[in-house]
Amino acid sequence: MSRRGFGVAVGAAVLVAAALILASLLSAGETSTAPPATRPAGSSPFAGIPQSGLALGAADAPVTLVEYADLQCPYCALWAADVLPAIVREYVSPGRVQVVFRGLAFLGPDSETALRAVLAAAGQNRLWPFVHEVYARQGPENSGWVNRALPTAAVRARVDLAQVSRESRSTWVERQLVAAGRAAERAGVRGTPAFELGWTGKRLELVEDGSLDTLRARLDALLAP
């Protein structure tokens, strides 16, 4: 699968996000944590699947798949549309795999705007449907498309956009920006989409080929009796 290059942007993103965290912590001490897992209704690929913060699927799933993505990356949007629904149907829905979102923002200001919004929606346990709807409205890089897309995407994903706006610069969101950048750097992520896969709670292995055939083979090997 083709990917967008990540390069040295990780280090810069970590430093910027770290500064934002410090500023946030020195403010009024705002915090934001995800509420207990909920099961979204509706006809989206995620209907009936438990969500909690950044995670999609059962908390006790034996295998974890981490996705690294930039919301302006066209290959990430293709993966979300063409591969993720099958992964959800075959592995997440039966409780065998949990998928975790790690958002990166290296393609420009629209990437950060979109990422902050979907991270804030994690506080409503609506990150995954919101990401899905944002991808469906993806436009030319840094053309301002995100600000145009977010209201409709929020309605479709049943996200409270006013709450997202309030929480998009919360301490919790800042921490997720830093954590994702550091995790991508440790994993050796060089482009998006990229993935880590392995036993839940154990060291995960970087998987750069996110094709359905590759992921199925890896998952089936892990989950074999």
CATH T-level fold name? Glutaredoxin
- Globally, the shape reads globular
| SSE pattern | EHEEEHHEHHHHHEEEH
What's the CATH first level?
Alpha Beta
User: Class by helix and strand content?
Assistant: alpha+beta
Radius of gyration (CA) equals 16 Å
CATH superfamily: Glutaredoxin
Tell me the count of domains. 1
Oligomeric state: single chain
Strand order across the largest sheet? 2-3-5-4-7-8
Q: What composes the largest sheet?
A: 6 strands, mixed
- The whole-number mean of residue pLDDT values reads 85
User: Uncertain spans, ≥5 residues at pLDDT below 50?
Assistant: 8-42
Q: Can you count the beta strands?
A: 8
Report on the architecture of this protein.
There is one protein chain. This protein is α+β, with helices and mostly antiparallel strands. It has a single domain (4-25, 48-223), classed as 3-Layer(aba) Sandwich (Glutaredoxin), CATH 3.40.30.10. It has helices at residues 9-26, 74-82, 84-92, 109-121, 127-136, 145-157, 161-167, 171-187, 212-223, and strands spanning 4-5, 51-52, 55-56, 63-69, 97-103, 191-192, 194-199, 205-207. The radius of gyration is 16 Å and the shape is globular.
